[in-house]
Design goal:
It is built from two helices and nine strands; from the N terminus they run αββββββαβββ. By secondary structure, it is of the alpha+beta class. The protein has a single domain, classed as Lipocalin. Strands 1, 2, 3, 4, 5, 6, 7, 8 and 9 form a nine-stranded antiparallel β-sheet that branches. It starts with a helix and ends in a 9-residue tail after the last strand.
Length: 153
């Protein structure tokens, strides 16, 4: 009888501790989502290579809209648009497109768009967002102020 009571207490304690752990994971996920959404993420690097400043272009950025699945941004030359979906640390970017003005950094823009299509996860550490493809960092961004782009975006 004593053994049954001890076993019951042990099971209840295990369930309570397990639910606390799940709550912590859910809280971390919610905090990551809230940090991701609504910020302007300024592009720092692609595939580990820092971007060169170009006086003929503006800083590329992404913005994950709050309350919707819309992705908006700027490639450094053209406006970027698409959709995103989140599940834990998984991130999928779909229906990506951009306006098609010609510019001197079109190769960098095409490279950025190709990388974004492959993204499958993200991590936020402080004010730095890292996007991943198959556990490899493919792009890094820093949270920043709303950028000044020529088209008023």
């Amino acid at each position: 009888m004593k053994q049954t009571i001890h076993l019951t207490y042990f099971l209840i304690l295990s369930i309570l501790l397990g639910s606390c752990t799940m709550s912590q994971k859910n809280r971390q996920y919610a905090e990551g989502v809230s940090e991701l959404q609504g910020s302007y993420w300024m592009l720092l690097s692609l595939q580990g290579q820092e971007l060169q400043d170009n006086p003929e272009s503006n800083t590329a950025y992404l913005r994950f809209e709050e309350g919707s699945d819309e992705l908006k941004g700027f490639t450094g030359c053209n406006r970027l648009m698409g959709r995103y979906s989140l599940s834990n640390d998984n991130l999928q970017l779909t229906n990506l497109g951009s306006t098609r003005a010609m510019c001197p950094i079109i190769e960098q823009e095409n490279y950025l768009m190709a990388i974004l299509q492959k993204v499958d996860a993200f991590k936020i550490s402080g004010d730095v967002l890292t996007l991943f493809h198959k556990n490899t960092a493919v792009a890094t961004f820093r949270a920043g102020a709303p950028p000044m782009s020529p088209d008023g975006l």
